């Protein structure tokens, strides 16, 4: 293994990052990925402060290797969350959905490495100015909450790479070793992988949701609710209800009323496939089995090596 | 140069196909690309039958190498267009926007190679069943008319590749040699490139439009008019007018009235940057200069070779 800018920054073996995802990535998944040489991330977005502390402590017991916590900055208990992260000496924090200037200096003053998630060139540069250590650039095909620009991974990565000097992590649509190699050829130093790890044994989502993810085919997800916050989900009954509402020219309030509270928990954690919100990426169409996280890592690495050999045989 | 399935099929040197684009790709651009070792395509979508015949004849005079004609099958004079293609012995036809069963057997009975453009796995397989020689799978980031599934190049290519047995051409978001290599690693046999060739000296679009394409940045295009036929365009005044209309909950007829007739011609051929429809892909953000088509081909090939060397140096 040759160190690159991301493996050096995080002190991990492979430039593979398991995305921090609500109702999917707790300590079990994160510690398994870190043990296998990647960077596991605990997704704080679906956790109360005390629950997050418990996940961090369990993760530290399960692995001595680096791991991270992902913090969506629209979180209500943000001060408390950051306090716990600092107290528990979490080595790396991924922030998203907010201004990277707000927390980066404070976290870095505690020797925490900070990565910010963006979906445009403009916010990649703002993050760099804010002093983050690296940027995740996430394409339109990614699951869950997403940018307004709708720029895809294939076009976003080279456009960000052209402007950015700090390390760049590609996200959105990557679920295989050939995907990792393609993202790196387009300009990324590493790949962040979400959807593939949702369909893992250690992922904390409900088994109903995991089974739905591996059943999904090309075209089965959609980015919707753009007036609130754009989010990519499976086209289940709840999605059809959104579509029906759209056909009546709804107000923002109508959309908020339909969304209600805890739709994502209902779908992904409680396994209600009809009424719940099932956030997942387009690349779910390529995933057909639930596997242990360690096996997913082994497959990604083997596929990457195979793709490199195939690439070297392509000639013009 | 090592032949692959696409270079063998078309009898060209490089697996680089210049997309057939309305108001952009006439005989000048197509013949230059073919002369440079790629496959040039005349876009019939903006041509009356007699105009198309003239372009085909001029292309044949300008190059003895293979070229193709792209035919959107919603064309009103389709019988006449196909008759001319057969009479003029065009060796390769790319069809789009229609059922591949309708014309494939007839064209193939005249020894014409047929390629169909799709944006989903489902229609890729339907095209294969219809007997086409190859499929173009075009991602959400592509300029102009586009699919309803919104599947991106990064996720569409591996998903189509997994199911398809005939050769696969990737399109959408590709404008550099590293993009070609990335698309091939994801599973494509070749790359179709549109936006990069719009900003060519030989492209037949108005200079105003070409200059607007090279000025475009990440986030400057949008897929819109999904209720009519989804189309990706620059966010100019006409696009803002569409957005304003959307805010009033318009009917399909309202949208059709705003679109009117010949908007694309007004924008791309007559150079009206305010009232015209300016169809272009997301990757326009990466393109900064208008170049001769021959130079574009040389750059793509040099970048491809450089990307291959870089790829071989990536290690885990």
Automatic annotation (TrEMBL), chains A, B:
Any Pfam family hit: NMO
Residue intervals passing through the bilayer: 164-186
Keyword vocabulary terms for this entry: Flavoprotein, FMN, Membrane, Monooxygenase, Oxidoreductase, Transmembrane, Transmembrane helix
Keyword Transmembrane in record: yes
GO molecular function: monooxygenase activity
Name listed for the protein in its UniProt record: Nitronate monooxygenase
């Amino acid at each position: 293994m040759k160190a690159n800018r991301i493996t050096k920054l995080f002190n991990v073996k492979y430039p593979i990052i398991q995305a921090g995802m609500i109702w999917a990535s707790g300590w079990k998944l994160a510690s398994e990925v870190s043990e296998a040489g990647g960077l596991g991330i605990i997704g704080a977005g679906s956790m109360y402060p005390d629950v997050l502390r418990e996940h961090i402590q369990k993760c530290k017991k399960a692995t001595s290797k680096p791991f991270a916590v992902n913090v969506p900055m629209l979180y209500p208990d943000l001060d408390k969350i950051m306090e716990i992260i600092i107290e528990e000496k979490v080595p790396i924090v991924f922030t998203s959905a907010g201004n990277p200037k707000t927390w980066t200096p404070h976290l870095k003053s505690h020797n925490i490495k900070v990565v910010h998630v963006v979906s445009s060139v403009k916010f990649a540069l703002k993050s760099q100015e804010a002093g983050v250590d690296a940027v995740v650039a996430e394409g339109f095909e990614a699951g869950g909450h997403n940018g307004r620009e709708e720029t895809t991974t294939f076009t976003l990565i080279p456009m960000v790479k052209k402007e950015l000097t700090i390390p760049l992590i590609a996200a959105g649509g990557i679920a295989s070793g050939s995907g990792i190699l393609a993202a790196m050829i387009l300009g990324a130093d590493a790949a962040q992988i979400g959807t593939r790890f949702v369909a893992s044994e250690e992922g904390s989502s409900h088994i109903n949701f995991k089974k739905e993810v591996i059943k999904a085919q090309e075209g089965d997800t959609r980015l919707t609710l753009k007036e609130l916050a754009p989010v990519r989900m499976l086209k289940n009954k709840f999605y059809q209800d959104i579509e029906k509402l759209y056909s009546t020219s709804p107000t923002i309030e109508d959309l908020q009323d339909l969304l209600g509270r805890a739709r994502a928990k209902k779908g992904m954690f409680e396994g209600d496939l009809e009424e719940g919100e099932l956030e997942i990426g387009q690349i779910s169409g390529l995933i057909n089995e639930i596997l242990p996280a360690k096996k997913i890592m082994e497959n990604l690495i083997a596929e990457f090596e195979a793709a490199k050999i195939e690439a070297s045989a392509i000639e013009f």
